[in-house]
Specification:
The complex is a heterodimer of chains A (977) and B (96). With 977 residues, chain A is an alpha+beta fold. Chain A has 22 helices and 47 strands. Among the domains of chain A are: 130 residues, Ubiquitin-like (UB roll); 193 residues, FAD/NAD(P)-binding domain (3-Layer(bba) Sandwich), CATH 3.50.50; 148 residues, Gyrase A, domain 2; 87 residues, Alpha-Beta Plaits; 80 residues, Aminomethyltransferase beta-barrel domains (Elongation Factor Tu (Ef-tu), domain 3). The chains are: A alpha+beta (977), B alpha+beta (96).
């Protein structure tokens, strides 16, 4: 497929591959083989395949650039997962990957002609082309929709497993290169608990491939020694293959692996994140076959891959000469060294390579890479002589080569530090960014801190490790020392940008932005780097400007005439690398709360419905009569309570105990009703409003003692009510103690005309007779040996008792009620029937029949408001509202024609085409033989007997009539029996 | 994620807490409608140092956090009684 003659170099090249273990995989449908330890990109390179994907805008052929997962050129699709970094993805048996962003095939992309249209896709065209000529947008839209995005999403992808883990460390060292190893050792030896995080599969970083102007074997032995010391140190935990994707306040770090998100809290962080080599800018600098020095060294040293047969090296620094030595050592012919410096920075290096037969061309540059047809590799380069100004002259010649290595400098990988508040500022002396505003409780070391000479890097790491230890209060014995270092000043070229009149001199590979695009952005008035970024989209691709922002800033500042020194890079945000939604989401948890009778309900045919986090029986389908409809089942349950006796599981109601000398005063302030004179042994309605006077909760208060209340709340309101109580008393300082006992007591409501007979039949020390246990009485005692708080409330409007029982004994009590009640025809009753029963009594459901604007008088609950009290929450708002006309009232209604269409909740009450209210509850009442409900209506419609219209589905109007509530047993005689 | 030093539970992840807004002096029950409307509906949203109600949800513990909304720095946390006592002291000093 390719004309490359790449192949494997002999050992010891290829430090991370295991040549004894061959792995087969597929790319673009074709079978290949690689070794264990290979990444997809390296294994393909070994097979002569450098082309991995097509560029976003012009569909240019692209191959991995850094071979460290730092560029967007290496994105491939693996099954359902798009945008996988081929130079980070280990090959595995059966792996099958595809290139991205092409029409047709990776090798024959029909959209490559977009490149020829580049003059019609000028910078900022997104912001201009949309509008003119009028009506053009739909055409553009179709084009954009097809071109937008990278990779393909499979909406039917199988669910994968993802989870999260929490980690803690005294010191987190991000990056396992020389600085990180050194920092980890220094901190650990001082006694700190260290977590060393490395993105690659192995520790060592640049020690695995760079020369540092030494013999490689010296670097190898230094690496082995450092890694050995780290592995033997019990204070160091090593996490490899994990990317630190975010650095959040107080040293909260997000580390991601393909299926796991680690949340790390560290007392101290040392960022040894290194630096990324920057591209040299010339025509066709983006083609496969053009590689940075570090990428070339990674290919050769880590994976043992011969990157070409005839190389040209363009350099501005000693690292470029290092690569020449590497290439020669590997037996690759080096055609020439193109040194962009006016005079050699290191005459010794020039001398050294010259004696090895390599021609060095001083004060020259690469003006252009010459592509093979199809742009999938290069056949040579055009060399330009440089003028003293540093600009290319017309003097030029060509050199044949299939590999061009460039070495013009680095940019610190300070993006993570920037997540936590750091900034990247351009520094004139270093010709690079420096990281400033390093967050508290953290440090930097290594090339991210512009240290490049190996001794200086190691010393810098040690210093950072010792500083961390001291910050933790440890007393390290060792002393830090600072090593001399030329820093990036000797490495970074100030302006390695050689524009070509025919363009394709790429500054940003992600977004296909060229020198001219940036010049035009400035010419269009977007001079500030932030504006130029947004207008041109430079730095907005997946690699977030790691490989482009340094050169882009240089160009923008030069064109606009602004100072480069002090200029800052645009804002950096997490994640550092693309991360899948699955990793962020983790496992799906849906907590459920179950009552102690849940199992019994399920065994007895209950169909459950959610109530907040709870599951409650909606109704009991039973096993005997499958033919019955839901409505029939519910009607049966309603009839059981109205006619005999039923029992409802009300354990989900919130329960709060209030104790203390100020208990009654506390309730007086929290609720609208009055509790100070509530007798012991009596229950009283509770209505809670907020500061706006809106109803927020209701329940029942049982006074068990002078200084002891047991109160209930709504099912979904208990946590909020309890929290709100504590919040208020934090301010009031009343002498009370409030305890949420929702899960301490289970509740069951036994109701129906025969309920007293059932209670009197069960062994108890309580007297359930009418005189001893009247309506609204509260008693404490035991039933069948089980302690109980029993109360008589009008829950469903029948004679009934509510029993609150310790959670663990509730099931026994429930079973006893069912067993004893059998002879009276007792049945369990679900929420559906409960709602009908309560609606027949006109009882409201907070949150369904009320909203945040419902004040007590709107729901005819003003009887539960004691205005004479000096204080309760919402009192001023309720008082003020009474000086204003009411806009709506909650009333009971019946349908004039119960055989016609039935309204649903939230259907609108309409008068003269204006909305005046809405339906909040509606049900068929067997007892009344008609459809009844609750609705908000205009005040004039609230009189009993008034008619109003409800707009139901399909715009039909249904006539309803206001009815006094309760609908059923208006005198409330049955509950007081 | 920030760490909040809860006076009851010690330093915990911010995720475990909720904020209920600024600590405000409730107007008297018979205060004018404007004063009540201001208290109920309007927040100061100050850029700078504010005192806020925070709750450690798992333990339902309320306390006061003094923090700088511009820098997100948490300056101090107080038990409510401690906070209100110190406020009363300050007010006492002011009125002297």
């Amino acid at each position: 497929m390719s004309k490359f003659t790449t192949s494997r170099l002999p050992e010891p090249w290829g430090s991370v591959i295991n040549r004894d273990h061959t792995i087969s995989f597929r790319f673009e449908g074709k079978g290949y083989q690689g070794y264990e330890g290979d990444t997809l990109a390296s294994a393909l390179a070994a097979n002569g395949v450098m082309l991995l994907s097509r560029s976003f805008k012009y569909h240019r052929p692209r191959g991995a650039f850094t071979f460290a997962g730092l560029d967007a050129n290496s994105y491939v699709q693996v099954g359902d997962e798009p945008n996988v970094l081929a130079d980070m993805l280990p090959i595995s048996a059966g792996l099958s990957a595809m290139g991205q962003n092409y029409l047709g095939s990776l090798y024959r992309d029909h959209a490559v002609h977009a490149g020829r249209l580049s003059r019609f896709l000028p910078v900022g065209f997104y912001y201009r082309a949309f509008f003119r000529p009028k009506g053009i947008w739909p055409l553009w839209e179709r084009f954009f929709r097809r071109a937008a995005g990278l990779g393909k999403i499979n909406c039917n992808a199988d669910e994968a497993y993802f989870d999260k883990q929490y980690l803690f460390a005294d010191v987190a060292v991000i990056g396992g290169g020389p600085a990180g190893l050194s920092a980890a050792l220094a901190a650990a030896r001082a006694g700190a608990n260290v977590l060393l995080i490395e993105e690659a599969a192995t520790l060592g970083g640049s020690l695995n491939y760079a020369r540092f102007q030494r013999h490689r074997r010296d670097v190898d032995s230094l690496r082995d020694s450092l890694i050995g010391q780290v592995e033997q140190n019990d204070n160091i935990r090593v996490l490899v293959g994990a990317t630190c994707n975010g650095w959040f306040p107080d040293n909260w770090l997000a580390l991601s692996r393909p299926n796991r998100l680690y949340k790390l809290r560290a007392k101290h962080v040392i960022a040894c994140t290194g630096s990324v080599e920057q591209a040299m800018v010339f025509r066709n600098n983006d083609l496969p076959g053009v590689l940075p020095a570090s990428g070339t060294q990674r290919l050769m040293r880590l994976y043992g891959i011969c990157p070409g047969s005839r190389a040209v090296v363009a350099t501005a620094n000693a690292e470029g000469y290092d690569v020449v030595l590497d290439l020669l050592e590997a037996g690759i012919s080096v055609q020439a060294v193109i040194d962009v410096n006016q005079s050699a920075a290191s005459p010794e290096l020039v001398e050294q390579v010259s004696t090895m037969g390599v021609a060095v061309h001083q004060a020259c540059t690469v003006g252009e890479a010459i592509p093979r047809t199809g742009l999938r590799s290069i056949t040579g380069v055009v060399i330009n002589k440089l003028a003293e100004s540093g600009e290319a002259t017309g003097e030029s010649w060509q050199l044949d080569c299939d590999l061009l290595v460039t070495s013009v400098g680095y940019a610190p990988l300070g993006q993570l530090v920037c997540h936590a508040g750091g900034e990247l500022i351009y520094d004139d002396a270093l010709n690079s960014f420096i990281v400033t505003n390093v967050p508290p409780d953290s440090g930097l070391a290594g090339s991210v801190n512009h240290r490049y000479a190996l001794d200086a890097v190691l010393a810098d790491g040690r210093t950072a490790g010792l500083d961390a230890a001291r910050a933790l209060g440890l007393n390290p014995e060792a002393d830090s020392q600072i090593m001399p270092d030329s820093g990036a000043g000797g490495i970074n070229h100030p302006y390695p940008i050689y524009p070509h009149r025919k363009g394709k001199d790429f500054v940003d590979f992600d977004e296909d932005q060229t020198v001219a695009d940036l010049q035009n952005a400035v010419a269009d008035g977007f001079e500030h780097p932030e504006l130029a970024k947004r207008y041109s989209t430079v730095g907005m691709g997946p690699s977030q400007g790691r490989l482009s922002s340094l050169n882009a800033l240089r160009i923008v500042q030069r064109v606009s005439g602004d100072h480069l020194a002090g200029a800052s890079v645009t804002t950096q945000r997490p994640p550092f690398k693309p991360v899948s939604f699955g990793v962020l989401a983790g496992r799906s948890f849906e907590p459920e709360r179950l009552t102690p009778m849940h199992r019994w309900h399920a065994d007895n045919g209950a169909v459950f419905m959610p109530a907040g986090m709870w599951k409650r029986p909606a109704y009991y389908a039973g096993n005997k009569d499958r033919a019955a409809t839901v409505a029939e089942q519910v009607a049966e349950e309603v009839a059981v309570i109205r006619g005999n006796v039923g029992v409802i599981d009300v354990s989900t109601l919130g329960g709060i105990e209030i104790r203390g000398p100020d208990a009654a005063e506390f309730l007086n302030r929290m609720y609208t009703f009055a509790y100070k004179k509530q007798p012991v042994g009596r229950a009283r309605y509770l209505l809670m409003t907020d500061d706006t006077g809106g109803i927020v909760d209701d329940g029942v208060a049982c006074r068990l003692d002078d200084e002891h209340f047991y109160i209930t709340t709504t099912t979904t309101g208990s946590d909020t009510v309890y929290r709100n109580m504590l919040r208020r008393n934090a301010e009031w300082g009343l002498e009370i103690d409030a305890l949420n006992v929702t899960s301490t007591y289970a509740g069951m409501n036994i109701a129906g005309p025969m309920s007293r007979q059932v209670m009197e039949k069960i062994e108890s020390d309580m007297d359930f007779s009418k005189d001893a246990f009247p309506y609204l009485a509260v008693r404490q005692g035991t039933i069948n040996g089980i302690p109980v708080i029993a109360m008589r409330v009008g829950f469903v409007g029948e004679l009934g008792y509510e029993l609150h029982v310790p959670w663990t004994q509730a099931l026994a009590m429930w079973k006893k009620l069912i067993a004893v009640g059998a002879q009276f025809g007792i049945r369990p009753v679900g929420v559906e029937a409960q709602r009908v029963l309560r609606l027949e009594k006109g009882h409201i459901i907070i949150g369904q029949d009320t909203d945040s604007l419902t004040m007590p008088r709107d729901a005819a609950l003003d009887w539960a408001v004691t205005s004479s009290k000096p204080y309760f929450i919402g009192k001023p708002a309720i008082g003020l509202s009474e000086t204003r006309p009411q806009s709506r009232l909650l009333v009971g209604f019946r349908l004039l024609n119960s055989d016609g269409p039935v309204p649903e909740e939230s259907h609108l009450v309409v008068r003269d085409d204006a909305i005046v209210g809405r339906v909040t509850s509606v049900a068929w009442s067997e007892a009344l033989d008609e459809v009844i409900g609750l609705a908000y209506v205009a005040p004039e419609q609230a009189e009993s007997g008034a008619n109003f219209q409800i707009k139901v589905s399909q715009g039909l109007m249904v006539a309803a009539q206001t009815v006094q509530t309760p609908f059923y047993d208006p005198e409330n005689l049955r509950q007081a029996l | 994620m920030k760490i909040i030093d809860c006076p009851l539970n010690g330093p915990r992840n911010a995720q475990e807490f909720i904020c209920a807004g600024e600590v405000k002096q409730e107007p008297s029950q018979d205060a004018a409608i404007d004063e009540w409307a201001d208290f109920v509906f309007l927040e100061n949203n100050l850029k700078g140092v504010v005192h806020e109600w925070w709750c450690h949800v798992a333990s339902s513990y309320w306390f006061v956090v003094t923090r700088d909304t511009a820098t997100e720095r948490i300056i101090a946390t107080y038990r409510p009684d401690e906070f209100f006592a110190s406020q009363r002291q300050t007010e006492g000093a002011d009125s002297e």
